[in-house]
Design goal:
9-stranded parallel beta sheet, 171 residues, 4-stranded parallel beta sheet, globular, mainly beta
Length: 171
């Protein structure tokens, strides 16, 4: 169980070849479950590839379960991949990740490509939902299932749809 709240304002320089930015973590390699993040991410990516997510920037051989984010994301630059939850869930020659029973509520402003739930994915997402307040940029995938904002405020919906435990875990 973990959480992160706050704000990130980053400038990624040309010399960097692969950057990852997320409110909870830049990259996840192991298992993360029952976590949340809340805040804003602002990144100017001026380099080869930048992955930005409201929860995590890049999932590489990792898994995320029963987690959520409420995020405002503002990203600019070339080859910047933005996702309401994860910037990338595996990509190209890297190992894939798994996300399940998780959701994102996001406002996305991207100068390049975005996905409402994940920016780019070679991994798997199951039981994942999103609400995107508004988005700019080019949408490049349809991972996750759209949901109304009110659903994410309803403990009944979260229990019946995601199966989360509000007795012992989310107390």
């Amino acid at each position: 169980n973990c959480y992160a709240t706050g704000s990130i304002d980053a400038y990624v320089t040309t010399g960097d070849t692969f950057s990852r930015v997320g409110l909870l973590a830049g990259q996840i390699l192991g298992q993360t479950k029952n976590c949340f993040s809340f805040g804003t991410v602002k990144v100017n990516g001026n380099q080869t590839e930048t992955y930005i997510g409201g929860f995590v920037g890049f999932i590489n051989s990792g898994s995320v379960y029963n987690s959520y984010t409420f995020a405002e994301i503002n990203a600019s630059g070339n080859r910047v991949y933005v996702g309401g939850f994860a910037g990338s869930n595996g990509h190209d020659n890297y190992s894939t990740g798994t996300i399940s029973k998780s959701f994102s509520v996001a406002l996305i402003e991207s100068g390049f490509q975005y996905g409402n739930f994940v920016g780019i994915s070679k991994g798997s997402e199951s039981g994942c939902y999103y609400y995107t307040e508004s988005a700019t940029g080019t949408q490049n995938n349809t991972r996750g299932v759209a949901q109304t904002f009110d659903a994410f405020l309803s403990q009944d919906w979260i229990i019946s749809t995601l199966g989360w435990d509000f007795e012992t875990v989310w107390t």
